[in-house]
């Protein structure tokens, strides 16, 4: 229904996929890199909607690290493709895929991305609360919406600042 309403307003819709990048037109240097879905992989074998979820990295101008990652609901074969793609997966901050739910490849993702901060949205179901505790035990900051509500991440003075909205 959303796409239908956008078309009614005459706004063009463009499909984005792995390898695409969006650059802010305001001259700020903000870049958004699309890491998934990989359209070629989806053609080889049918994937679930979660396996074809968008994964993106936000890189402000001057960001020396891996940026801010948003992994949508990626899981299963989509996660496997992301991990096997040869990309630098280093992340300064990472929105955990599929609301932080426990999934088989999550440990490998954390190992490869090495985020300082992890964000989990949702109610903490399907093992997400346990995942949060494990990540904290490994020295990572975990901000979970079931604990403190909305989370705000900003690029300020050359670094990511991530905290609960209520503390801003």
What does this structure look like?
With 168 residues, the protein is α/β, with parallel strands linked by helices. Helix content is 26%, strand content 24%. A 7-stranded mixed beta sheet has the order 1-2-3-4-5-6-7. The mean pLDDT is 88.
How is this structure best summarized?
With 168 residues, the chain is of the alpha/beta class. Helices cover 26% and strands 24% of the residues. A hairpin with a 2-residue loop joins strand 8 (151-156) and strand 9 (159-164).
List the helices and strands and how they pair.
Elements lengths: L1 H7 L12 E3 L7 E6 L2 H6 L10 E5 L8 E3 L5 H9 L8 E3 L10 H8 L3 E4 L7 H10 L3 E4 H4 L2 E6 L2 E6 L4
Parallel strand pairs: 4-5, 5-6, 6-7
Antiparallel strand pairs: 1-2, 2-3, 3-4, 8-9
* Arrangement of strands in the largest sheet: 1-2-3-4-5-6-7
Query: What structural class do you assign from the helix and strand content?
Result: alpha/beta
Strand content: 15-25%
Report, as a whole number of angstroms, the end-to-end distance.
Answer: 34 Å
What's the total count of β strands? 9
The chain-level mean pLDDT equals 88
């Amino acid at each position: 229904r959303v796409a239908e309403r956008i078309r009614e307003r005459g706004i063009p819709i463009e499909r984005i996929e792995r390898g695409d990048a969006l650059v802010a037109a305001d001259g700020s240097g903000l870049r958004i890199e699309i890491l998934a879905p990989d359209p070629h992989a989806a053609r080889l074998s049918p994937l679930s909607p979660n396996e074809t979820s968008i994964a993106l990295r936000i890189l402000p101008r001057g960001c020396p690290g891996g940026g801010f990652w948003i992994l949508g609901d990626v899981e299963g074969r989509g996660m496997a493709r992301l991990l096997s793609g040869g990309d630098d997966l280093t992340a300064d901050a990472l929105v955990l895929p599929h609301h932080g739910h426990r999934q088989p490849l999550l440990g490998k993702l954390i190992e490869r991305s090495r985020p300082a901060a992890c964000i989990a949205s949702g109610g903490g179901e399907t093992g997400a609360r346990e995942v949060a505790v494990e990540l904290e035990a490994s020295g990572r900051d975990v901000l979970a919406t079931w604990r403190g509500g909305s989370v705000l991440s900003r690029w300020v003075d050359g670094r990511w600042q991530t905290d609960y909205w209520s503390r801003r």
